[in-house]
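Sharing a chain and its predicted structure for anyone who wants a worked example. Both blocks are below, sequence first, tokens second.
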Amino acid sequence: MNGATLRIGIDLGGTKIEGLALSRDRAEVARKRIETPQDYQKTLLAIKGLISFLEEEASAAIGDSGHGSVGVGIPGTLSPVTRVVKNSNSTWLNGHAFDVDLAAIIQRPIRVMNDANCFALSEATDGAGMGANVVFGVILGTGVGAGIVVGGRVVEGHQGIGGEWGHNSLPWPEEGESPGPDCYCGRKGCIETYVSGPGMERDHTAVTGQRLSTREIMARAAGGDADATATYGRYADRLARGLASVINVLDPEVVVLGGGMSNLPALAEDVQTALPPHVFTDHLATRVLSNVHGDSSGVRGAAWLWPVDDRGADPKANARLRSPRR
């Protein structure tokens, strides 16, 4: 695959699969979304068909008739011990050697990584974190995760859990915050139980007795409702405390907010304001920013899983991934 001029990114989600083709100059030349089959083998075949479509479209657009490099972002991760998918909420992926099986079907090496890592890589490459050496890319949605990018490369960690800050305890708990809500991981008071979308809704119900969606809460806050405004205030403060504990360890130049909750108006600015008392420094230089690429960050990051220089894909990466691993 050396000399490849096309990057293919695949974002495998629970309900949709998005594919993107980027040319060497980073221009988008093809894109398509399809429904995700709720079956493992059908998912593999759907991705194969999507890759073929993207390459045909790219050939028509820029005359590139070769195979592109393929990166795939998945919910969950590949276990470094068993080399099968674990922790995926798309449960039909769990227990399968996804990278090996897909590589065999499309007859070329691939790279597979957690979707939060793909988000972070996208924003570090040509998004809100472009030019920064250390970027912490945060996903705030139904769950809470993150990816770490240093020097343009994702840091997965020794056990593949780099960036899993959502399953640390909420730091500096205030009255009523400890031991905290139950988390699906089996513990109590995880950051995820406070700063996910369901976490905000749970908190609002616990304090007011009102069952509202995050959109309803924020709409009421925008209208001046005191209870909704207080809920948002607690949310932003808890997010700032959670991120402060990361900044104290990782000291990133940029924290990029992504996921559905990152669309809350002025969230990045409010978190930036709330951070300084919790960070162990006399001058906070870390910037908290909203993402640039939105819902496209995951698929763009998947495309960037193969570093490409003037000669094509990284030859060492090809050598590492050419042989199946079980």
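Comments welcome. The chain is about 35% helix and 20% strand.
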